Amino acid sequence: MKRIVILTISILAILAGVTVCNNKVTPDNDNKEVKELKAMILNEDGTIAFDKAAGNDRYQIGVENREDAAKLAGMFAENIIAEDNYTRTLQDGMGTVTVSLGKASIYYSVQFCVKDIPEFTLLIKNAKTIAGDITRGQGGTYHKCPVCGFNWRSTSNTCPMTTKHAGQ
């Protein structure tokens, strides 16, 4: 019985360690994955490149449909989008990116817990529902990328798929 209790406590401790978001990792240099994520989600001044949403540490971007939402969420999750939650664990203990299916107008929720990036959640939403939600700017405008054709609604006119353009 004592053995089962110790085993159970050990498993719970491991699970707690996996689910805790810790972006205070100590390695000196960013690895390739962190550099790519920074290029996708941060402005040049280090601020988060998405529009602020209601709630603490929540940001949003609007897309036309679930297919576009899956493409965008897939960029953050190694292009693996299933009909389930997915956690991408970065190399060298640099953090995690968790993609979760949303409900109603939120297609996906992406939680970033990555070294040297402020911890936040990105809501990938139906573009028609975010006009009144954006607290920065006046509801954003629709954009279509001339390089890849991706459609999004935001106050930012920078294509969120920019890192994919390198191969085109």
Helicity, as a percent range: 10-25%
Give the radius of gyration: 18 Å
Q: What share of residues are in beta strands? A: 25-35%
- The tally of strands reads 8
Largest sheet: 6 strands, mixed
Low-confidence stretches: 12-19, 23-28, 133-138
C-alpha end-to-end distance: 61 Å
Question: How would you spell out the order of helices and strands?
Answer: HHEEHEEEEEE
Strand order within the widest sheet?
Answer: 1-2-6-5-4-3
Query: What's the quaternary structure here?
Result: single chain
Count of the separate structural domains: 1
Mean pLDDT: 74
Name the shape in a single word: globular
| Class from helix and strand fractions | alpha+beta
In short:
With 168 residues, the chain is an alpha+beta fold. 23% of the residues lie in helices and 26% in strands.
Descriptive account of the structure:
- The N and C termini lie far apart (61 Å).
- The chain is globular.
- It has one domain.
- Mean pLDDT is 74; it is low at 12-19, 23-28 and 133-138.
- A hairpin with a 5-residue loop joins strand 5 (106-114) and strand 6 (120-126).
- The chain is an alpha+beta fold and 168 residues long.
- The strands form two sheets. A six-stranded mixed beta sheet has the order 1-2-6-5-4-3, covered by helices on one side. A two-stranded antiparallel ribbon has the order 7-8.
- The chain has helices spanning 2-19, 32-41, 66-76, and strands at residues 51-52, 58-63, 86-89, 95-101, 106-114, 120-126, 141-144, 151-154.
